[in-house]
Request: fold
Amino acid sequence: MATKLEFEQKPRWVLALADSLVMIRRSSTHIVRNTDQLLGTFFQPIMFLVLFTAVFGGAIATGSENYTDFLMAGIIVQTIAFGSTTTAIAICNDLQRGIVDRFRSLPMSNLAVLTGHVVSDLFRNGISTVVMVLAGLLIGFRPTATVQEWLQFIGLIALFTLAISWLAAIVGLLAKSVEGVQWMTFVVIMPLTFASTAFVPAESMTAWLRPFAENQPVSQMVDAVRALLVGAPAENSILLAAVWSVAILVVSMPVAAWLFKRKTSQ
Amino acid sequence: MRKSYKDNQVLRGINFEVEKGTILALLGPNGAGKTTTVRILSTLLGFDKGTVTIGGFDVQTHADDVRRSIGLTGQSAAVDELLTGRENLVMMGRLYHLTKQSAHARADELLEEFGLVDAANRPAKTYSGGMRRRLDLAVSLIATPPIIFLDEPTTGLDPRSRIAMWDIIDRLKQGGATILLTTQYLEEADQLADKIVVIDGGKVIANGTAKELKARVGKDRLELTFGTQKLFKSAVSVLEKDIQETNADNKSLTIVLKDTNADVKKTIDLLAKHELKFDAMAVHKPTLDDVFLALTGKQAKDTEGK
Ligand SMILES: Nc1ncnc2c1ncn2[C@@H]1O[C@H](COP(=O)(O)OP(=O)(O)OP(=O)(O)O)[C@@H](O)[C@H]1O
Ligand SMILES: [Mg+2]
Reply:
């Protein structure tokens, strides 16, 4: 043992932050190395965008805007919502392989394991969103957003991604297998994205569904994004979307942390 | 310590000490409670009753201090498949809070030591089982912890890799580490350990040095097989007083060896003197089953899945 080892001498919270950075780096490397998933990140949103405009474009009356302008917000939010499945799967995978045991036997911050996955999800969704906006521009998406509105859009999307990824972390911790993750996220996300204003205006839905579709968080998010990007009527959707996201975040983070601790000490 | 899952008592009062700088082997069959014990000692699992002190720190009240001084290699390889060997090492080093330079320097040193230099920049998922096991162990040594837990470090390795692993473990001890390893093989415990604790069904059933245990278990045995019944019968009459067991169908007989080398030589010489040729000869070392047979009077019971 030739090398004399040196340890970081820093306060606890700095070390905890450093742990998170190490884990974020790990999960981000996964994104790049996992080529199948990376291709999905690029092609899935493009496919949705093209299919939806081609299939529904003629049939759906959205008011004044063209359907691509209307759809863009819906597709972005939907892609992020479904993208959170990746976080859940990654966490479930970690728990099934012995690697979480190893992390827990280290003098590191335990929460960093979850933070790593959640934050890298932010990067991946960032890539997806950029790809979608560019593809949208090619097929007729004409945003009217000012620089300030673009910035607001980025902030809001990031907040929403974090919130939904922490929620997904809970699913990843509860599920017993990757298959379990898949149906659990599907059962939650499918109704939330389809019974929303993402693809069709709420006015066209069955009466009993409308109140839900108009007020649930995904719809607020879609309306907010739509307002920012193409100037659709906002009402107070921007504020509500932010409030929903923060609320989900504030609840799901400690729940995930608690579940992680409980699940891994059995 | 004691540990149960619901009403399944997995550890029914395990008690032992490992002296600094020595190797202790926890020997037991499937389901004996080896992994459970290691998980408790390495702060991964809570327990119901008892106290556990690692390097002077209580695992329940000072988990972080314990974690700083231990390295754990679990029963199933715990490396990140998508990261390369080097990335795995550096990542774990950073999580032990080594400085960047130290983590990188130590990673290089370990890659060298464990024969992984050529594979250092390949994702771990491309590694063979033996390489993965070596990486797994290397990772747990990244911060040179003074206390090391190895849960069945050689299970699944071919004989050559197993011996290489024994070498590595022995060198760790020479370097001053205190090691607790689990195994299902008496031979392995005998090779490596200063002290052996035999557990079965969550209880310690024996505790001592390999020598002490073997003295209780019995001696090596020599088995001789002959080509014809005539030779077999003559041999039985020549060796009569040393014979423990005969098997006329196989034309084989078994002799208990008090002093393995001397007794084998004596027996062969005696047979040669009477011009009795044998077909095959084998020296049997006591196995885990013999240990259990001697200690409990019954076969090692497989309590797995109960
Ligand atoms: N989470 C759990 N819930 C219920 N029972 C468990 C749990 N984990 C382990 N057991 C039981 O505890 C007993 C001891 O298991 P343990 O894994 O410690 O055995 P082991 O000696 O390591 O066996 P092996 O040689 O197969 O690795 C087994 O009967 C097992 O079924
Ligand atoms: Mg085990």
Remarks:
- Chain A touches chain B at residues 1-3, 5-8, 15, 18-19, 22, 25-26, 29-30, 33-34, 97-99, 101-108, 264-266 (CB under 8 Å).
